[in-house]
């Protein structure tokens, strides 16, 4: 029997690592390449062939040939040792604790032989009715557990497999009261489940009728941890080297049918939504693109949203979609709708847009209650204020657009614990973006018509968005009549043009004194003038805040694609602008 050192001496670490990393000379006994453990543009990963170690100067990952295989393939040390020993042509003895997992693989392989030989009959007919070819049935090693309490147990006794081994593999159930043991899987089509390395770790079984439970999985064992397993990943992972897309669907039949029809990136979770462990595994295997394709019902929606939550920290692009016909992928393909699957895979929504669409479809925007529920559902994803979290910022922007609320009001609400506990109708009304930038421009023009002397407050550099306001302001500020009140000349200038009606409306709105008596008219005029002056200041502060917010948005988009050193400078500018925005807001409150 060989030892760890025997395996190490037989292997060249550069050759092992070179199977996954393109290495180039970097000095005597040194090679370098792009680190497989984090994304980088220039190589900081080095291999010392004389010492037999690797080290990344970027993420600080380092170790020997065993730790490299452990980390890149998500293996225990024992499994990495056996894999490399096989590569080196050396046989090593498993240590206590490692042998138990290997025994489980062997016991599962024994059961597979039993299930496969019982496939002919109703089970095979069922699979063929579901559109599966004999080649596909063989490729996925489908079998059948016959009805009866002890068929597998009897076979095991003739092959020297003990009850204890079958119990540890989850193939038997023990009655705690009587101590009697019997087969776990009975009268079910059997789907062998392999891990990403192709090791047979357990089974899923489906009934042929409507009895419950419809599906039954192997229980948790040393080898079978369903939160870490994806059905079909052993076949689909070969696509990852080419940067191909993985598609997560709901069931075994979806995976098998999609593979048969050429969609060989399909995998499925085992009765659960995606987990953080799934995301970590896929990232480690080099996944770059992931699409979640679940049913459109409530359970499918919940599974998709839960899956999106788990992959937020992963470094691959994720989308969500569903088959246009509303069927699951297996039924759609059985009906000949290959085009529908292709359409779903070519479309789909990114994480942010899917969340917003799901919330809007669930609650609607026609009522205040609907808007309240949408905001509360989106709140967990919107509340991260990290400038580099583009998803949170994008969601806030979409929420403002679709719900018609002011960005500053949304941010204020998100930051207020009291308001988050109860979002009242009054809160929602106060967040309404009923005054856009163009509304503020009209309000500013109205105040200048009320008191022409306030024109001196403008420096002529404001970039007007409303074309009519721009024309009137150009005429107003270029007339040289600052301080004068020649509104008749202004109206004559725009007579017969759309601006004329705008001016008349604004004049009426600005001078509507209601039923003010003659005795109070002087006091009214004084109040109107004071209000107009304050309004001009307030409107200009709002427009200044809008301009600074636009600059912050631009900087946040630019900061992602620059070096770490440059990012610091951008972040400082963002912080300075945010402080200036707060100062302007305080100034506006002080003027009130």
From TrEMBL:
Transmembrane segments: none
Keyword Ion transport: no
Chain's gene name: dnaG
Zn finger residue spans: CHC2-type: 35-59
Enzyme Commission number(s) of this protein: 2.7.7.101
Superkingdom, taxonomy of origin: Bacteria
Sequence similarity: Belongs to the DnaG primase family.
Self-association state and partner proteins as the record states: Monomer. Interacts with DnaB.
Bound cofactor: record note: Binds 1 zinc ion per monomer.
Protein name per its UniProtKB record: DNA primase
InterPro entries xref list: DNA_primase_core_N_sf (IPR037068), DNA_primase_DnaG (IPR006295), DNA_primase_Znf_CHC2 (IPR036977), DnaG_bac (IPR030846), DNAG_N (IPR013264), DnaG_primase (IPR050219), TOPRIM_DnaG_bac (IPR034151), TOPRIM_dom (IPR006171)
Domain Toprim: from-to ranges: 244-324
Claim: Transferase is one of the keywords in the record: yes
Domain notes: Contains an N-terminal zinc-binding domain, a central core domain that contains the primase activity, and a C-terminal DnaB-binding domain.
Short name of any one Pfam family annotated for the protein: DNAG_N
